[in-house]
TrEMBL record:
The keyword Signal applies. Residues 38-114, 269-309 form the IPT/TIG domain. Keywords: Signal. Pfam families: TIG. Residues 1-33 form the signal peptide. The keyword Signal applies. This is IPT/TIG domain-containing protein. InterPro entries: Fibrocystin, Ig-like_fold, Ig_E-set, IPT_dom.
Length: 312
């Protein structure tokens, strides 16, 4: 008799399992109870880095960034929205959109500890395809770099670069309570090459952060190039905490280098002096070229004198 029951749960044992499960759900909220109330912002950038906040209940607290997974789904395609640990808790998920999303409307899908939140728990009573749960990626909400100046310079304490285009705000940190166009968003960070680009002078004043007019989204950011990197670089900036995100690059700001690399600006070493200043027409004169920001390796260094290559 006993072995006939193997593999099947006795009714008493089964109901006590169910009981424990329900009690657990009551006190700690199991993923069955996870629910999304709404998402914000409703719009974001084509170049990503829009901070999305998903409010709800029952989100995973085990591993905040792996336990909670967000996907943005359109009719044609879908993208992950990688979850950020800080900003995520039982009642809130924070994720950042990825660059390169196609323009269009997306609805949100959330998995908690591997279990998808069902439609009947998404943005009720209106449902998962209502405004409360939709996100649109569009040009109007995409910061854009339309000019870069200069496009070639050598690094140094005075190397300031100007980026013009759709910047949406002239607010940085707490320099003003609101942008002059009324917006509350701020410039979070500017990147030039591999490092951040410093918006403040050493006396804490801004170099320049200005909208063209109080009703404009267009303007100019100036910042100091940091570090000593030599080579081809791009710039970008992030307008944070709202329906914007990372800037895209207008096509005509992209240049092509001799080695076919695409870039927005180049940094080069500076030459401060050449000695001796004269030598024999037969050649063989040793030249010393002094300067800053040379690469320190021979391999990628060539010296041209009057257009003719010379031996090092
Ligand atoms: C600069 O950005 C363009 C696209 O916007 C990309 O194709 C290119 O590889 C980037 N160049 C560098 C040096 O990162």
């Amino acid at each position: 008799m006993a072995y006939l029951n193997q593999g099947r749960m006795s009714p008493i044992l089964g109901s006590s399992f169910l009981c424990v499960f329900l009690v657990q759900c009551l006190f700690t909220r199991c993923s069955f109870g996870a629910e999304v109330f709404s998402i914000s912002p409703p719009y974001g950038s084509l170049c990503g880095e829009t901070k999305m906040l998903i409010s709800g209940t029952g989100f995973s607290q085990n591993k905040l960034s792996e336990g909670n997974q967000v996907q943005l789904v359109s009719l044609a395609t879908s993208y992950d929205c990688p979850v950020s640990k800080d900003g995520t808790m039982e009642s809130m998920i924070m994720c950042y959109t990825v660059p390169g999303m196609k323009e269009g409307v997306y609805h949100v899908r959330v998995k908690v500890d591997g279990v998808p939140i069902p439609d009947e728990n998404m943005c009720q009573p209106e449902g998962p395809y209502s405004d409360k749960c939709l996100f649109e990626v569009r040009k109007q909400n995409t910061p854009l770099i339309q000019s870069v100046s200069p496009t070639s310079f050598s690094p140094g304490p005075e190397s300031v670069i100007a980026l013009g285009g759709m910047i949406f705000t002239d607010r940085y940190g707490t320099n003003v309570a609101a942008s002059s166009n009324g917006k509350e968003e701020t410039v979070n960070q500017v990147y030039a090459g591999p490092l951040t680009c410093e918006l403040r002078k050493t006396n804490d004043e801004l170099y320049e952060l200005q909208l063209d007019s109080p009703s404009s989204n267009m303007g100019q950011i100036k910042c100091r190039y940091q570090g000593t990197y030599i080579g081809n670089s791009n710039a970008s900036f992030i307008i944070g905490d709202g329906p914007y995100g990372r800037s895209c690059r207008q096509q005509d700001t992209l240049l092509v280098s001799i080695n076919k690399q695409i870039y927005q600006f180049q940094t080069f070493p500076e030459i401060t002096g050449v000695t001796p200043s004269s030598g024999s027409t037969d050649g063989g004169t040793d030249l010393t070229i002094a300067g800053n920001y040379f690469t320190g390796t021979m391999e990628n260094t060539e010296v041209y004198i009057g257009g003719k290559s010379s031996l090092m």
